[in-house]
Amino acid sequence: MSQWICIKPKSQENEENFISISLPHPRTGLPARYIIQDGDLFEAQRVDCSSQNSWFIKDIIQKDGSMILFTRIDPLFLMIPFLENSRRKNLESQGFFLTLEDILDNIDYPSTTRLLTINNMLTYMEWICDGKDINLDSKVYRLNDDKMMKWLKGKVTNLLSKFDQHKSLRKLAEQLDNETIHDQHRQELRTKFILEVIMEYLPNYWIEQLKKEYKFDELGKWSNQEIFYMTDNTSKYSENKKIEVEVKQPVKKRKLTLGQTTLAKANKTGMKKLTSFFSKIPKD
């Protein structure tokens, strides 16, 4: 029997009051593990160590030294594939209206109906769907593309406004050094990073729509040989003062910070990306 060390949010009610379910990941469609606790949805992610490690638990040795974290996830991300597939949109029609029970009816994942127990789920549905009452006790829904894009853009705006507050993003913010990157370019890099995070939880169709909306491929691309910005004595960029640089004029190299210089000289052979330490928890 497999067992792991898990870190989960503290329950407001009974500590054992959580349900473990298997649902398709919204981007890959592969089985992934989630839990519902106190009406909130959490995603299970395994953090693997780069070398062999073990846990000592009282007088027992847990050979698997990895750790599983339960992190909160917006349930609408998991709903998007079901809503997209069930409406059957085509060139002649925006698709069908269906009840949530019919939308979530999936023989391969019977636990999908558990999403209906999420707190405020019906309110969330109004954010990305059109709804119609068919009687006093039942309502039908259909994904609305305009509402969907507005919701996604709201996600981007919200994360950008709190970029420096998130611990996971703070280190990245420190790399966007004030002395070497223009404010506009820094904002582009932050936007691109946020988009990459959000697109990890979207089906391919909506990934492409989001890329078009933000001109994703152009974000973070600029040339120091085209323009430079005049600065004052406080090293802040002056507004609306762009000077063209002649081709023959040497371009002044940007000054690297101490951390950037050290990283550039380091031997990165065999180093893993930070994201390689995180993985989705597969279905049992």
Automatic annotation (TrEMBL):
Residues 77-211 form the Ribonuclease H2 subunit B wHTH domain. It is found in: Nucleus. GO terms for biological process: RNA catabolic process. The keyword Nucleus applies. Keywords: Nucleus. InterPro entries: RNase_H2_suB, RNase_H2_suB_wHTH, Rnh202_N. It comes from the Eukaryota. Pfam families: RNase_H2-Ydr279, Ydr279_N. This is Ribonuclease H2 subunit B.
